[in-house]
Every structure is written in C-alpha cells, then in structure tokens.
Amino acid sequence: MNNQFGKDLTTGSIPKHLIQLALPILVGNLVSTGYSIINAIWVGRLLGKDAVGAVAVSFPVFLAMVAICSGATLATSILISKAYGAKDRATIQKIVNNSWAIAIVVILIVTIGGLLLSKTMLRLLGTPEEIMQLATGYLKISVMSFAGLYLSYLISAVLRGIGDTVVPLIFIIISTVINAVLDPLLITGVGSIPRLGLNGAALASLISSGAATILGLIYVKHKYKKEPINPSGFLFERKTIMEILKIGVPSFVQQMLVSMGYAFITIFVVRFSAASIAAFGIANRLDSIVAMPAIAMMMAASTLTAQNIGAGRLERIKGIFKWGIIINIPVIAAISVLCVSFPETIMRIFVDEVDVIQTGIEYLRIVGVGYLFMIIFYVSNGIINGAGKAISIMVISFISLCVIRIPLAGLLSHTSMGIRGIWLAIVISFAVTTIISLWYYFSGRWNKDAIMSKKSKQRQIVAE
C-alpha cells in the first residue's frame, strides 16, 4: 500500500500516535460544544424563552439523529482501520461502497420519516401547544440537515480509519465558522436577507453541515483520487453490511441508553426543586466537557487498536492500553481536582443563584471524584470497540445505566441522602463500568477472533 495513502499506525511510537489522533478529535469536540453554547445564547437573547423551549423539546430527536450517524460511521471507521492495517485495498473499497449505500438508504428513511412525523414526535415528547408550531418548523429543517450531518460523519470516519483526524477537524472549524456567521444573519434578517427567527437558526445548521460535506467530498476526491476510500459505486453486499450493522447497531443502542439514563435521572431530580433541575442541567453540561479528553483518547485507541489487529500486531495493544491511561492521568486528574477543590468558582461561571450554586457544589464534590474512573474505562472501552466488539460495550452500558445507575438513584434519592443519593449513584455506576470493562479487557475474550485469525494466517504461510 502506498505510504502516501493514510497514516500507518502499526509501527512507531504508540504514545505519539495516540496524542496525534486524540488531539484533533478533542479540539473538534470543544469547538462544536463551544459553538452549541454560543448558539443557545443567540436563540435565547434574540428570540426569547419560547424559542429556547422549542429547541429544548426538539433536542431528544437531534440526539437520536446523532446516535444514528455516529453508530453507523463508527463501524465504518473500525472496519476500514482493520483493512488498512492488513493492507487490503479490496476490502477497504467494499466497506466504503457499502457504507455509502447504507448512508443513502438511512438518509432517505430518516429524512422522509422525520418530515412526516415531526409533529407526532413533538407531541410524544409533551411539547406545549403554544410552542408547537415554532418547534415543528425548527424540527423539520433540522431533519432536513440530517443528510449533511450523516455524510460529514461518514467522511470523517473514513479519514479517521486511515489515521487522519486533522482534516476532519478543519471541516468542523469551517462548518462552525459558517454557522456562526449565518446564525444571527438568518435569525434577525439583514438587508435583503429576511428575518427567519428560529427557522433561521436551523437553516444555518443545514447550510453549514452541507458545506462541510461538499468540502469533504472534494478533498477526498482530489487528495485520494486513485485510492479505495473514494466510493466507486453503491454496493449492497450481505457480508459487509452485516459486519457494519454488527458494530453500528449496538453502538447506536448504547448511545440511546446514555440519553435514556440522563432522562431518568432528570425525572428523579425534578422531584426536589427548580434549583436542583438548574444545577443538574449545568452539571450535565460540565460532565460532557470533562469527558471530552477521555472520549478523544477512546476514539484514538479504537483506531490504533483496529489497525494493529488488522496488521496482526496484537503485541502492541498492551502498549495502547498502558499509554492511553498514562496520557489520560494528568488531564482527567487535574480536571477532577479542580472540580472537587473549586466547585463554587466553577458554578458561579454559569449562575448567581445561591441555591443552584449550593446544589452544584454538592454534585461536583461527589461526582468530581468519580471523574477519575474516566482515566481507565474510556481506554479499555476504546480497545474493545477497536476490536469490533460493540455488543460488549452496549452490554456494559446497559448494566451500568439500567441495572445500577437508574435503580440506585431512585432508591437512594428516597433515603435521608436525598438528592445526594442520585449523585452517589452516578459515581457508583462509573465504578461499575470501570470494573466490568477491565474484567472483559483482561479476560482476553474481545481478542479471540484476532488471535485465531493471526494463527490461521501463520499456518497458511507455513503451508505455502
């Protein structure tokens, strides 16, 4: 395979590879999250509480769309990484062609279904009638942006599969800049641009995701003109599609479990006070920011693991596990110490209300300690995912959320611990995730297929 085609991660420094892969992913996530906060400010300041409410009730549908995109494209990234490590151009081309075929089918189903069922979904989510029209218009345009969202995820996944996480970051930055410029212009209207209100915010996202997709297609077409990561046609091959679904569907379910877990915890928190709800909303946003470095390391570990399994370099996986944790320690530990030591300072960045701050302080002092578990389980989960064992990750999430976190939060919140019982349940679920993930990693069950495949190839070579 041409050395100019992608980045070979099967040789060289493991910590260097991990940092080079993880850093652009982390920056991209920070850019996207930072802009989502700015976008919320635009909507709140320019359009008021009804618009904020319309966005909020549409958010679960958007999360489901993101889960579909990331689940299916994670499968593509892992399978391409394995084939790239094995230097199997033909398999890469099959994966790419099948992934694009699946993309077209999924985009058509989700877009048509979403447009037809927008109002029905909003009613199921309990949308108040006074904001129903506003929310419906916003959701319909958001559903139309699903095509750009999915394809931009797919292009990034293909590039990540061949070891390139820098170019997808550039696409995210360009898309974010376009969105940032269009948002206020389309919301308020300037010159010949009409005032579109909340629909303008949704339209800005549609245009920016479309622009990122077009740029991605142009880049891949010209940069890798004769390489197999360019689709050469649409292909529905049963074996490849089943491999994609085997990873993609459990990954989608796992992400939906996370969303469901958040919804249930919110229901438990609502019983206490409005201040508790506000504090939990802020704390949940902090959780997502805190997890970003660990998630970036998880994705880097997945790509590195998949390439090395494909190349039969299984001895390097122990190094991925070791160095992933070592690199995570100073970053996550520093964040944990800050959250536990200065919770009031952190909460005051977001709110001034004393009761909200006090609840937030309790959350950060308890859950902040639990952040330390992220040092380990995101790395082990990344390796397991890289081996294509997405079902195992789904089962781990199910046990952590549905067997431990949700029931325990409900139980402890009815004791003298009150809302602190919910925070403790979150930490315990982190610990359970770490224990199960480590047990599965050290059991070696996730690696049996790769070991058998390597032995088979060795026997084949000897026979020849």
What report would you give on this structure?
The two termini are about 20 Å apart. Helix 6 (about 165-190) runs antiparallel to helix 7 and helix 9 runs parallel beside helix 12 (about 355-370). The protein is globular. It has 16 helices and no strands. About 45% of the residues are buried. The chain has about 475 residues and is mainly alpha-helical. The chain has 2 domains: about 15-235, no CATH class; about 250-460, no CATH class. The model has no long low-confidence stretch (mean pLDDT about 90). It is found in: Cell membrane.
Q: Give the N-to-C terminal Cα separation.
A: 22 Å
Number of strands: 0
What would the principal axes of the Cα set say about the shape? globular
Q: What's the pLDDT, averaged over the residues?
A: 88
Classify the secondary structure makeup into a structural class.
Answer: mainly alpha
Helical residue percent band:
over 70%
Organism: Paenibacillus puldeungensis
Protein name: MATE family efflux transporter
Keywords: Cell membrane, Membrane, Transmembrane, Transmembrane helix, Transport
InterPro entries: MATE_fam, MdtK-like, Membrane_Transporter-Flippase
What layout of secondary structure does this protein have?
Layout: H1 14-47, H2 49-85, H3 89-124, H4 132-144, H5 146-161, H6 166-188, H7 198-223, H8 238-270, H9 274-310, H10 317-341, H11 343-348, H12 354-370, H13 374-386, H14 390-412, H15 419-443, H16 448-463
Helix pairs in contact: 1-2, 1-6, 1-9, 1-10, 2-3, 2-4, 2-5, 2-8, 2-9, 3-4, 3-5, 4-7, 5-7, 6-7, 8-14, 9-10, 9-12, 9-13, 10-12, 10-13, 12-15, 13-15, 14-15
